[in-house]
Amino acid sequence: MTVLPDDGLSLAAEFPDATHEQWHTLVEGVLRKSGKEVSGAAAEDALSTTLEDGLRTRPLYTERDAAPDPGLPGFAPFVRGGRPEGNTVGGWDVRQRHTALADGAVLTDLENGVTSLWLAVGEGGIRVESLARALDGVYLDLAPVVLDAGRDVEAAARALFGLYEEKGIDPKAVRGSLGADPLGYEARTGTAQDFAPVTALARRCGEEYPGLRALTVDALPYHEAGGSAAQELGLSVATGVAYLRELTEAGLTVEQACGQLEFRYAATADQFLTIAKLRAARRLWARVAEVCGAPGAGAQVQHAVTSPVMMTRRDPWVNMLRTTVATLAAGVGGADAVTVLPFDHALGLPDAFARRIARNTSTILVEESHLARVIDPAGGSWYVEKLTDELAGAAWEYFRHVERDGGPAAALRSGRVRDDLAKTWQARTTKLAKRREPITGVSEFPFLAEKPVEREPAPAAPSGGLPRVRRDEAYEALRARSDAHLAATGSRPRVFLATIGSAAAYTARSTFTANLFQAGGIEPVTEGGFEDSGATEAVLCSSDALYEEQAEQLAASLKASGAGHVALAGRPAESSGYAGVDSYVFAGCDAVAVLSATLDRMGVS
Fold first, then answer.
1. Full-model pTM
2. The pLDDT of residue 118 is above 90
């Protein structure tokens, strides 16, 4: 029987403390084995990851990376949560989005775990005159309603107020948001919106419906246009400040104006960045409230939505995994409400199964994984605290840039916002094209034989302003070309993988090559000879040593057999390359450019 020491289980009691420098030495040894001769801090830098916004994630965080004190939940700067109890009482608000009337869908959601409704009303959603039908049977004193009505917000609000009055709902029992967001609408459509009706709605909410907010600061238009986390945060803060100015000029106090705002952010599968983003957002808004003289009103109310940008149309089942991680991050990050987009969101209107999986995602994380039992469970992590601090700094700097340009409206109208987001998206597009940012099921491990998932088309969303981007768009275009070829000819374009030597010599590169070409809808053929493959191009796959011995001879043989183009899996040799080899494919190459050129040569339009 083991006897514990008097001071408990002191596992490290007999070991001397290790230093950061000693760890550096160990890292140097590991990197040396991979051919990198670096030392000291450079060794740590070699394992670091560059993020957007000039941020950099290091491989190890210690007490040397201490960030400012995040405070306590319910107290400024609200980094650890806007409410002292956090989400420990019942978990976060499970908010389901509906863009069209579907028989029984709203009530089915509410009866099976959903706690509030987010309704797209008017343009691109449910008609205003159908709002009563959409909410038929809903207990409006129990289920908060959040509107997304764009230019029709005034009419939609009147309709909702009418329902409250018709059903005799106590105004003090009403919860939710009217969702007015003039700047968000302008970002979506390019059309400016009068703020006067919004001010009237805010005043009415404040006077008659204390639990109902009038405005939403929606950062999704900037996220969906390709913006970074800091840009999303900076623009949301700038928008919030613009709304505070409008409301206070109309006679509301700063405290009253802050009480009319809800903030909406994207939650992505980048778990730690999402956690840090939500924590940083609360800190930023607390600073705004402090500067405005109302530090006690700086508790930001947050609605997190799983990112539409990350949703894929191919292999959409993988979206369930993405949204699960994003929901986990939103919950851990302290979001007050979370919307999980159904896995088929990018394909059209979700079916009943997709909606069920979406709402059950939150249910499992709250009820079975117990994520809501602890307030801010990531708090105290040196990494999370440092990332929160650095992201808040980058976002504040971008906010100041927007303010110097005259505020968010001026920055939108001048094209500054569009240009900034486009620049960020272009850099990310390069990473996607080179598969430095992999998309499982699309750019990595695609499944060419999958049966397409079909859905009814969703109502056309408002457009005309900032673009809406998707991570999969370049690969989707390639796959669409392959699909058209399949429909026209009965087979997909093919490429022959010419392997050299034993399986041990060629497997790594043949697997890489097959994966690469399938991402463009090109079927790899590995059996038999080139003449029987039905392919017009070939790729040599083997080790560097065997390439030196056989690459040129085999390339000549393939061309003699009719191959119009011969590529080699691997980087070009230090000299001019191999005679007869036309191109090279390797980790880090521009996959989209390679695949597009290949389809062009194959005549796949």
1. 0.94
2. yes
